[in-house]
Amino acid sequence: MSTPVRTTLLALLAIAAGVVVFSLSRSDSGVSATTQAAPPGVGAGTTVVATVDGETITVAELDAALGAELGQLEQQIYEMRRQRLDQLIGEKLLAREAARRQVAVDALRKAEILDKVTAVTDEEVTRFYEANKARLPNAPNIRDQIRRYLEMQGVETREAAYLDSLRASTKVAVTLEAPPIRRAHIDVAGAPIRGDAAAPVTIVEFSDFHCPFCRSVQPTLLQVLDRYKGKVRLVYKDLPLDGLHPNARRASEAARCAGQQGRFWEFHDAIYSGAAGTDVSAEALRKLASTAALDVEAFEQCLAKNTHEAGIRRDLAQAQQLGLSGTPAFFVNGRLLTGAQPFEAFAKVIDEELAASR
């Protein structure tokens, strides 16, 4: 069986998934966030996994310490199992149909799948390239790679449709259980909000102003807010990665100073436009402040006082408590998504949350 249709071009072309890994310093302590998991069975939760001079550590305590990462790993394992299960089901359906027709499985696949795939045109390759060129590698054979990807996608689409037709006439029961949903509870008091403040779905973004993946996902977030207008709000949390981006914390402070004038998102957008790069000199920040239509003098006075240093430390402490390991990281109603995810990844979780709230 081939890879599922939802495999992305970025994976096929070996483009990074979009997450910058970091380590939080022990000195970044302060206000913490809590992670609440769906309760495990009593036996599992109370199982002792270690003792220290007679004092026990249980599975429940261990799971709580792992935080949101545990839920994401459980979901990844489930999705791997479900993907492989669908492949096994498909293989059985093909084998049964081939036996019914008294032909080989390969012959059936060729007749019903490969021979019915439409050839990829040069116009389709060009259209895909133009839509994605900002994220594609500068390789001399990139058009050939795109063509192969589109051909593979065509085969996957046809195969999925054919298997669906076989499945519709066969009794298939899937009893694989999804893992319990683990939700992080994050204090967002005072954080900048974009979208309807009363929206039923909240996306909390932990981000670094100088992280390239954080910048690349911004158009996707705007697409999400537009598509789910009134249903989704975006909350911004600072997670400057000092070891990788030594100037990012200064950019976070500047954005918070802009927020004091009610212009956080204007300054946020100016930074993520990439015009200033990673420059946080007084001149560069003044230009950003002007772009965001700030009172520049008040903005510079705010920066000079390090007014928001403590607030950034609180965000860092929350990230550490939540077990985050990179940027960008998102919590959709407390459900973790890491990396510069495509629109479809956000939409899947948002749709589930909206359905559950009805």
Topology:
Layout lengths: L8 H4 L7 E2 L12 E3 L5 H5 L1 E5 L2 E4 H8 L1 H34 L3 H8 L9 H11 L9 H27 L14 E3 L7 E3 L5 E7 L4 H5 L1 H10 L4 E7 L9 H13 L3 H9 L9 H10 L4 H9 L4 H13 L4 E2 L1 E4 L2 E4 L4 H15 L1
Parallel strand pairs: 7-8
Antiparallel strand pairs: 1-9, 2-5, 3-4, 6-8, 7-10, 10-11
Structural commentary:
This protein is α+β, with helices and mostly antiparallel strands. It has helices at 9-12, 42-46, 59-66, 68-101, 105-112, 122-132, 142-168, 212-216, 218-227, 248-260, 264-272, 282-291, 296-304, 309-321, 343-357; strands at residues 20-21, 34-36, 48-52, 55-58, 183-185, 193-195, 201-207, 232-238, 326-327, 329-332, 335-338. The two termini are 37 Å apart.
Q: Note the gap between the termini.
A: 37 Å
Strand order in the sheet with the most strands: 6-8-7-10-11
Rounded mean pLDDT is: 87
Order of helices and strands: HEEHEEHHHHHEEEHHEHHHHHEEEH
Gyration radius (Cα, Å) is 24 Å
Shape: globular
Kindly state the number of beta strands: 11
Largest sheet, strands/sense/barrel: 5 strands, mixed
Secondary-structure-based class equals alpha+beta
Quaternary: single chain
Give the count of helical stretches. 15
Helix content: 40-55%
Strand content: 5-15%
Low-confidence stretches: 1-17, 21-43
In short:
The chain has helices at about 10, 40-45, 60-65, 70-100, 105-110, 120-130, 140-170, 210-215, 220-225, 250-260, 265-270, 280-290, 295-305, 310-320, 345-355, and strands spanning about 20, 35, 50, 55-60, 185, 195, 200-205, 230-240, 325, 330, 335-340. By secondary structure, the chain is α+β, with helices and mostly antiparallel strands.
